[in-house]
Specification:
The complex is a heterodimer of chains A (302) and B (296). Chain A is built from 14 helices and two strands; from the N terminus they run ααββαααααααααααα. Chain A has 302 residues and is mostly helical. The longest helix of chain A is centred in the first third of the chain and has 34 residues. The radius of gyration of chain A is 25 Å and the shape is globular. In chain B, helix 5 runs antiparallel to helix 14, helix 6 packs across helix 9 and helix 15 crosses helix 16. The radius of gyration of chain B is 24 Å and the shape is globular. The two termini of chain B are 27 Å apart. Classes of the chains: A mainly alpha (302), B mainly alpha (296). Chains A and B meet through helix 2, helix 4, helix 5, helix 6 and helix 7 of A and helix 1, helix 5, helix 6, helix 7 and helix 8 of B.
């Protein structure tokens, strides 16, 4: 034991063998944390008060970036597009996933079916975007070939300002539906079977059981799924980067794409950072909301 | 336990089965079109567009994207340039392996310290780690890019892996939960025998935590294999691109008039294969890992 004996007790604790071991154990992770999480967060905050194009040294501008942000119609448009995307994405995805989960729970419990339905979730956003760029190709894409064989009109999908955002949402619903269903499925497993048996004896049908037992008892899972998918949806980027590049005519210029454009195409690091801070604030609100709802939601299952 | 025979084949059940079949069809059909297109000869793309099955399957596109045909032959069938997805595949494998192994290991060490060792400042630091899980990627990528640029690490392997190799707050948090549940008696006995903390960690704690470690490794593998944004902004150089970036570059190189769709789909299929193998080999673990990660 090399415990230093002359030190006052408070300091001794700092240099005890166990403390040194503890610090040694967290050292690599702590270095990674400081370099790539802690300092960057602080730095992003400080950059947001500067004008900086990476070529000249950053010039402090106070709140100018934030003021410019408020006055920037493109920023509000990006916020609107992101909000619309979330609105397209979340309700349909949640309903489809819940339907899929209930069907699996009632019909097939096989791990094989679950493995099949999460396959899209295992693919990268880039791969998924590529698949749908082809599948929804205006002329040769299978979907349009099929539509025209039915005598329906071909649709431009990614190519139309009116359809592009909904198409991006649809693509992400395809990717996430199975994963969300898996979460609901796990939630369904935790509902005691005896409840259904008792309800069945009382003569309740499937529909009634769903509304009276399944849905209320799934509330914690539903809250979790809703909030995490909203937080995820606010950060949509990859699909836009590959499939639409923010277009056509800015129809899919979501917030992270606009941040990316400002940082890496216009080299306005300060402005982009200010925007990322606003996004951060929005997401913090959702996270706090989740914590609140979660606490409220837990009482049901207890 | 519910007994299937107790359910007669009612109209409701027929509807339910149909719905399930439709949802599974929607899940799988796009992947089928990828395979179909990948084995279609580039010159027949137009004629084959309405077919569900390839009439004359060929491996030409795979040979093209793997760089196994000459540039002339590739250009003759509408390819853009020689793109070698073998390099991108190798980069992706290296990128993923490096990050999964080292991130899991270092996160486990930290998680063990947070769960078991007592040292001043421990809880404060852990709280910081926890809080960091809330920071969106968009906040971090600008300063991280500047840091990597200042280090002169753009277009390098270390630049691509740097933000991921040492930890993620999620990994540390996830493993700490498990280490908290490991019975203390095991370690105390070893401690009395004079074992060092690292020996206890390596020979006792890690071996009995196989399940969470595998779960974390699977999740990290999926995320890392699919990572796009960071490798994209850090590595513009051809030889450093991972598969996701190479795919995106291949797609944007495609001239507007005659896109090389058969080549793109062959490349897309190549990018899917490893994920597919993971699912076939570790099916149950993958499903359970995902389920678990979602509902921790």
């Amino acid at each position: 034991m090399q415990r230093p004996r002359r030190l006052p007790p408070a300091l001794r604790q700092f240099f005890s063998r166990e403390a040194l071991t503890g610090w040694l154990f967290i050292l690599p992770a702590f270095v990674g944390f400081v370099l790539f999480y802690l300092l960057p967060s602080i730095r992003a905050f400080s950059i947001s008060f500067t004008d900086w194009n990476l070529l000249r040294p950053p010039r402090p501008v106070g709140l100018e970036n934030y003021q410019a942000l408020v006055a920037d119609p493109n920023f509000w448009h990006a916020l609107k597009v992101t909000g619309l995307y979330v609105l397209f994405n979340i309700p349909l995805q949640t309903v489809l996933a819940l339907l899929l989960a209930v069907l699996m729970d009632r019909l097939v419990r096989s791990i094989f079916v679950r493995a099949v339905i999460i396959l899209p979730y295992l693919l990268s956003n880039v791969v998924v975007a590529m698949i749908f760029l082809w599948l929804l190709h205006p002329i040769l894409g299978y979907v349009n070939v099929f539509l025209s064989s039915l005598g329906l009109e071909r649709q431009p999908f990614f190519g139309s300002p009116d359809q592009a955002l909904a198409t991006v949402a649809g693509v992400n619903i395809w990717r996430h539906m199975g994963f969300t269903a898996l979460l609901f499925y796990a939630g369904l497993q935790s509902i005691p079977r005896s409840l259904y048996e008792a309800a069945a004896i009382d003569g309740a049908g499937e529909w009634r059981m769903f509304w009276r037992i399944t849905l209320p008892l799934l509330r914690p899972v539903t809250v979790f799924v809703l909030v995490t998918s909203v937080i995820g949806s606010f950060q949509i980027f990859d699909t836009v980067a590959v499939a639409t590049g923010g277009g056509p005519t800015y129809a899919t210029r979501v917030i992270v794409w606009y941040i990316y454009e400002n940082a890496f195409q216009f080299f306005k690091m300060g402005y982009a950072s200010a925007m990322s801070m606003v996004l951060f604030l929005i997401l913090v609100v959702f996270t706090l909301l989740q914590m609140r709802l979660f606490r409220a939601g837990h009482s049901d299952l207890a | 336990m519910r007994n299937r025979a107790a359910y007669p084949l009612t109209l409701g059940r027929i509807v339910a089965w149909t719905l399930l079949a439709v949802l599974i069809f929607i899940t799988l059909f796009p992947l089928w079109i990828v395979i179909k297109t990948a084995v279609t000869h580039p010159k027949e793309l137009f004629q084959q567009a309405s077919l569900l099955f390839p009439s004359d399957p060929t491996l030409l596109n795979f040979r093209r994207v793997l760089g196994l045909v000459s540039l002339e032959e590739n250009l003759a069938v509408g390819g853009v340039a020689n793109i070698n997805f073998l390099t991108a595949m190798r980069n992706s494998v290296l990128f993923t392996l490096t990050i999964v192994v080292s991130q899991t290991f270092f996160s486990a060490m930290a998680a063990y310290a947070f769960a078991r060792l007592r040292f001043p400042g421990r809880d404060g630091i852990f709280f910081l780690f926890l809080a960091a899980t809330m920071i969106p990627g968009a906040v971090l990528f600008i300063p991280n890019f500047i840091l990597i640029k200042n280090l002169g690490w753009l277009n390098t392997f270390q630049g691509m892996v740097a933000p991921f190799v040492l930890m993620t707050p999620f990994a540390v948090f996830f493993l700490r939960q498990f280490f908290l549940a490991v019975p203390k008696e095991l370690e105390e006995a070893a401690h009395l025998d004079g074992a060092t903390p690292f020996y206890i960690f390596w020979r006792i704690v890690l071996p009995i935590s196989k399940t969470p470690l595998v779960t974390l490794a699977i999740l990290t593998t999926i995320n890392t294999w699919n990572e796009f944004f960071w490798p994209w902004i850090v590595s513009k150089d051809n030889n450093m691109q991972v598969l996701t970036v190479a795919l995106k570059v291949f797609q944007s190189q495609t001239p507007q008039g005659s896109p090389d769709w058969t080549g793109l789909m062959a490349a897309t299929f190549l990018a899917i294969i490893p994920v597919f193998i993971l699912l076939v080999v570790l099916g149950r673990q993958v499903v359970e890992s995902l389920q678990f990660s979602g509902l921790k």
